[in-house]
Amino acid sequence: MMVFRKRGGLGLERKMTPIGLVAFLVFLAVGSANAVPAVMGDWSHNSGHRNLIERRLENLKASLAAGPASSPGSSPKVSTEASNSRVYHVTSYGADATGSTDSTDAINKAISDAFKAPSDRILMAGIADLGGAEVHLDGGTYLISSPLTLPSSGGGNFRITGGSLLASDDFPTDRYLIELNSNSSSSSFLFEYITLKDLLLDSNYRGGGIAVVNSIRTTIDNCYIVHFMSDGIKVQGGHETYIRNCFLGQHITSGDDPGERNFTGTGINLMGPDNAVTDTVIFSAATGIMVTGQANTISGVHCYNKATGFGGVGIHLKTPGLIQTRIINCYMDYTSIVSEDPVLLHISGCYFLADANVVLRSVKGVIKAVNIVDNIFSGQNGGVDIVQLDESAGKFTTVDQVIVQGNVAQRMVLKSTSAISSVEGNGTTTWTVDFSSMLLFPDRIGHVQYSFHADSSFPSHALRNTTGNQVTIVSDIPVSAKVHVAVDQNGG
Questions:
Q1: Which residues form a coiled coil (predicted)?
Q2: Rama region for 103: left / alpha / beta (φ>0; ψ in -120 to 50; rest)
């Protein structure tokens, strides 16, 4: 039964009261209360059930007093004060989820509101804790004419998630779709624990994708970044930016692209220390990952950007004398790793396809504390060394603790800093073992061990020469013997 009420003298505007529904619910509640004694015994022994029924009736009255819920078609409100929600939906700010009109101002307003700290809690000194505030893109595609920026006041514990951003045709070519950068000259950190997750960023061949500047503990997760002209992701200053589960490409391709020779740009540009790139694919760019910061980790990355044969580089470590980088379990698909004056470099567990290799480039002639071990190389019978020295700018003159060993290859030339070989001679006094085709450095044997197995006599013998990576053993009398020699270049 529905009762309709007109406006009364008290100004009430309730148009419809669901009395019939109320009566029905009360009937059920009371009926349940009356049924309890019959099932459970004497009512006095079932006070717990009676209290439960009473609480249900109180909850029913409270919910009715709160009034009817909003209809599904009601418009969302920008204000979050009523529910204290810290999730800011950009469509509530007027952003166009179809990508037809410019949504830059609307999204930046949502970001600005999210940066109003709910309390006086802080993370790092001077960085407000935003309590996990989230700007949600509501699964839409938004046209952007200028960067989405975080307020210069700084903050942390914040995320942007769930949608796509498209650069407009007049987007600045020297900017990025999302910028964690206040353009402040201060050296202090501005942003901490910022998460960019589940985003597609299309730079429309204008600028870059994401710029993380002067920030710490930033996460870029499950992002697809394409059509950039500068960098897909740039990390500058700060430290501990973690990039994972991402896909980056200047052009959307799956290999064998007819325009591959013309690829430009850099997938990821690490210009700061202590960052990590994991489980990420760079499928088109001139350079997959450029590293000019220290103490970075690259793991589980698949680089098939511009092939090295076309002038591309998979991973370029461009910090001469201070690399401090670990590259682990990566797939270098037609693209090489290049390291300039490497110091403290570790490369292991990687797969190099189609003549992709490791190039150690001399700038000031320094190479120290380098491990290139336990990798797999597959070539094209082109005579390419698995590890190559580029000494076009000068020889490596300072060499210490360089270990290249335990690698395997097919259709490429194995190079190592240690080798073992044997030679036999009948009635001779000289045994020479040539390691020049095996050893990495052209004329640098640091240690030699050998065993001399003569047939019947006991001659005196000695190591006489290691020039040109050739080891010469001589005896005092002619003898038939087999010589086993082990050498290494680890110590210079």
A1: none
A2: alpha
Long-range contact pairs involving 24-27 (C-beta distance under 8 Å, separation at least 24): 25/60, 26/57, 26/60
Instruction: Return d(Cα 157, Cα 313) in angstroms, integer.
Output: 36
Rg (alpha carbons) of the chain, rounded to whole number? 35
> Is 145 in contact with 170 (CB distance < 8 Å)?
yes
Calculate the CA 184 to chain-centre distance.
Answer: 26
User: What confidence tens digit (pLDDT) does each residue in 73-94 have?
Assistant: 334 445 444 457 899 999 999 9
Task: Give tens-digit pLDDT for 164-197.
Answer: 999 999 999 999 999 998 555 556 889 999 999 9
Query: What's the pLDDT at 67?
Result: 46
Please give the single-letter amino acid code of residue 455.
Answer: D
Assess contact for 78 and 93: CB atoms under 8 A: yes
214, 236 in Cβ contact below 8 A?
yes
Q: What share of the chain is helix, strand, coil (3-state, %, to 5)?
A: 15, 45, 40
List CB contacts of 323: < 8 A, sequence separation 6 or more.
291, 294, 317, 339, 341, 342, 343, 344, 345
Distance CA 366, CA 354 (A): 29
**What was the pLDDT predicted at 83?**
58
* 321-325, Cβ contacts within 8 angstroms, sequence gap of 24 or more: 321/363, 321/364, 321/366, 322/294, 323/291, 323/294, 324/273, 324/294, 324/295, 324/296, 325/291, 325/294, 325/295, 325/296, 325/297, 325/298
In the block, tokens 């469509």 appear at 91
Mean pLDDT of the chain: 86
The model carries a pTM of 0.82
